[in-house]
Amino acid sequence: DSSYSETTPPFDLKTYMRQKGNSVNRALEEAVPLRSPEALYEPMRYSLFAGGKRVRPLLCISACELVGGNEATAMPSACAAEMIHTMSLMHDDLPYMDDDDLRRGKPTAHKAFGETAAVLSGDVMLLLAFEHVAAATPGAPPDRVARAVGELARAAGRDGLVAGQIVDVCSEGSGEVGLERLEYIHLHKTAALLEGAVVAGGMLGGGTEEEIGRLRRFARCIGLLFQVVDDILDVTKSSTELGKTAGKDVAAEKVTYPKMLGLEGSRELAEELRKEAKEQLMGFDPEKAMPLVALTDFIACRNN
Ligand code: GRG
């Protein structure tokens, strides 16, 4: 990037993701140990450790560090974001929602443990997420912790995952989903939790209101970017691969960016969003912003 001087060492995202990802996994191990009743904890751990990319936790930690906070302060919220994400996938896969048999190449939680266990384990993981932030956040004053909890709750619920899911489900088969509705669904189902993770990190790290505002706008851009790229990948992945994910023709019934804008139009939109996201990071110390800049590129260029 031209804003960085030639003396700035290149940022190694792979190492950053591996190191931070390991810390997140250790923290999740501690936050969600295998305990009684195992019928609740086993499906939680099965789904949590099924190989997710940990994008939300990494964003939370990077945002906290960007505004001067540290990893330990962000970690409970980082874990909470991953727990909320994972429970939403467990519920999304259920027969009366998306009805998927496979997730990340493994049987979905309800296939492995039954529907009741998948529902209740998801429920308890959602509650545990908030309990964990409230009880285990070190190095931040209580008002910041309370704000972070509120931010994550809103991102999970009324302004995020649940709102996006209901609009998505109600739009299915209606055949008249326009670009505006598509954007609503993605801003809520996908962008909101990325935003919650980033903003919670910024709040806990002691960011100013102005910084938090910029982080929020940054996160909205990468949230939409995430989804546009997802839709592009759905088209460019081979049809055999698609068939394997669900055993049904998902692509045929879903409204997607490539269907609305064409593949080229979608790629252009992705490029615009990537640029806009990075613009929001311009006001920060360039060196400290490197992880978020690199994570933006990762989201734009990922292939799964
Ligand atoms: C009660 C909070 C709550 C949720 C229930 C089911 C539901 C409401 C919402 C569904 C939300 C959903 C499935 C959104 C899709 C999110 C998305 C982009 C998933 C893919 O994320 P990645 O690529 O996945 O980060 P990995 O596997 O890497 O973790």
UniProtKB/TrEMBL annotation:
The keyword Protease does not apply. One of its GO terms (biological process) is isoprenoid biosynthetic process. Pathway: Isoprenoid biosynthesis. The keyword Iron does not apply. Keywords: Isoprene biosynthesis, Magnesium, Metal-binding, Transferase. One of its GO terms (cellular component) is cytoplasm. Signal peptide: none annotated. Its cofactor is Mg(2+). GO terms for molecular function: geranylgeranyl diphosphate synthase activity; metal ion binding. Belongs to the FPP/GGPP synthase family. This is Geranylgeranyl diphosphate synthase 3. It comes from Litsea cubeba (Aromatic litsea). The chain holds residues 80 to 383 of 383 of the full protein.
